[in-house]
Design a protein that fits this description.
There is one protein chain. The chain is mostly helical. It is built from three helices and no strands. It is elongated, with a radius of gyration of 36 Å. The model has no long low-confidence stretch (mean pLDDT 83).
Length: 119
C-alpha cells in the first residue's frame, strides 16, 4: 500500500514540475529555493552535501569507465568474429572452386550432338 501511495505522490510531483504551461516557472522557483536553502545551510551540512556529491560523481565515473571498457571489449570481440567469418568464407570459396575444377575435369567429353556420353 505504501508503494502505491509513494508512486502516486511521485507521479503527481513529476507531473506538477513537467506541466507544459507552468512547469518551467515551477522548476525555476524550486531551483531558487534550493539555492537559497543551500546558502543558509550549516557548514556541516554543506560538507556532507559535498561529500555525497563527490561520491555520486565517483560512482558515475566508475560506471562510465566500466561501460567504456565493456564497449571496447565488445568491439574487439566483434572485430575478431568478423575476421574469423571472412577467413571461413574465403576458405569455403577456395574449396568450392577446387571442387568445381575437379568436377569439370572429370566430365566426359561431349558427343557430336553436344550432350555428354550416353550409357
Amino acid at each position: 500500500m505504501f508503494k502505491l501511495l509513494f508512486g502516486i505522490t511521485l507521479g503527481a510531483a513529476i507531473m506538477y514540475l513537467l506541466d507544459p504551461s507552468k512547469g518551467r516557472e515551477r522548476r525555476e522557483m524550486l531551483g531558487e529555493r534550493v539555492r537559497s536553502g543551500a546558502d543558509s545551510m550549516p557548514e556541516g551540512a554543506k560538507a556532507k552535501v559535498t561529500e555525497v556529491k563527490d561520491q555520486a560523481k565517483a560512482t558515475v565515473d566508475e560506471a562510465k569507465s566500466r561501460a567504456q571498457s565493456t564497449v571496447s571489449h565488445a568491439q574487439e570481440r566483434f572485430g575478431q568474429t568478423v575476421e574469423e567469418a571472412r577467413t571461413e568464407a574465403h576458405d569455403l570459396a577456395e574449396s568450392t572452386k577446387e571442387r568445381a575444377k575437379s568436377t569439370a575435369g572429370n566430365t566426359p567429353p561431349a558427343d557430336a550432338n553436344g550432350s555428354g556420353a550416353s550409357s
